[in-house]
Amino acid sequence: MQTIKFLQDQPLFGGVGEAAMQAIMPLLRDLDVPAGGVIVKEDDEGDSLYVIYRGAVEVLKSDPDADDPLGKRIAVLKVGDVFGEMELIDMQRRSATVRAMEPVSVLALSNGDMLRIYESDMPTFTLIVMNLARELSRRLRNLDTLAAHYLGRDRESE
Amino acid sequence: MQTIKFLQDQPLFGGVGEAAMQAIMPLLRDLDVPAGGVIVKEDDEGDSLYVIYRGAVEVLKSDPDADDPLGKRIAVLKVGDVFGEMELIDMQRRSATVRAMEPVSVLALSNGDMLRIYESDMPTFTLIVMNLARELSRRLRNLDTLAAHYLGRDRESE
């Protein structure tokens, strides 16, 4: 299990105070995953988000042209990165598969835990949701650049 | 100006009750933009989000290959859609330009207004932030599919 200090330094818990972190720590589940282990699977239902505190994972999205049966790699995530949060926010199925590239340790926070934080400490809940939204926004900015690049290419080749 | 009922039906204000909407309505600024008018400009600083209630806009992202000096079109947004919210969440500059494709009317909500909602009605503020996060999540899901498609193509052509 990681320290409160480590978690406060990660984007997900940025700005969350000591007392609030003390209340959140017991909610987090600690998972160790061997290299090659699948942590979340595309199209599964999912009710937890994960913070990586050891190792790296790859994000795979199914695609008919992929060599890997789980899909094409669209991202690599490392210590401090979060995954699985989109499903917590929009209640849809997992958008991609996440597989450990090496031995990985993650902390899991479930939907039920988030509800508990909402009920007991709304300012902290709001802060975490804003941190998540900021992370989604950061990813969208990166992908928008990609979209401009490739959508343009497609139009040219039509 | 639009009715409370209209706003409650839009994703941004989904779940916000009548009394809370009554308090939000006076904060919203009503803007009419002629066809071709630029509402937000890429790289500008921005402190408002916008909800479209009439007309359609195009989202343009600067790109060296674009014919249009403002960039390539990466999306079209219509009545009920929101734009400008990423800057409100992450305090970065505008990620893209938004231009009216026809006469457009929008309601603008500023950062200061959001702070006022936070201070006076935290549950409503939290609901709006969750609605925004859900919208970002929806867009990311669409772009992830695009990313898998094109990143695969790039690898093949290397």
The total of helices of chain A stands at 5
* Helix percentage of chain A: 40-55%
| Structural Rg of chain A | 17 Å
Strand order in the largest sheet of chain A: 1-8-3-6
Quaternary structure annotation: homodimer
CATH top level class name of chain A: Mainly Beta
**Major sheet characteristics of chain A:** 4 strands, antiparallel
How does the helix and strand content of chain A classify structurally?
alpha+beta
At CATH level 3, the topology of chain A is: Jelly Rolls
Give the CA-based shape of chain A: globular
What is the CATH architecture assignment of chain A?
Answer: Sandwich
Name the biggest interface: A-B, 42 and 43 residues
How many β-strands of chain A, per DSSP?
8
Q: Distance N terminus to C terminus of chain A?
A: 53 Å
Q: H/E series of chain A, N to C? A: HHEEEEEEHEEHH
User: Looking at this structure, what is the CATH superfamily of chain A?
Assistant: Jelly Rolls
Low-confidence stretches of chain A: 154-158
Notes on the structure:
2 copies of one chain form a homodimer. In chain A, the strands form 2 sheets. Chain A has a 4-stranded antiparallel sheet. The first copy, chain A, has helices spanning 4-8, 18-24, 85-90, 111-120, 122-157, and strands spanning 29-33, 38-40, 48-54, 57-61, 72-77, 82-83, 97-100, 104-110. Chain A is globular and about 50 Å long. Chain A has one domain: Sandwich (Jelly Rolls). Chain A is an alpha+beta fold and 158 residues long. The A-B interface holds A 61-63, 65-66, 71-74, 86, 89-90, 92, 95-96, 118, 122-123, 125-126, 129-130, 132-134, 136-141, 143-152, 156 and B 61-63, 65-66, 71-74, 86, 89-90, 92, 95-96, 118, 122-123, 125-126, 129-130, 132-134, 136-141, 143-152, 155-156.
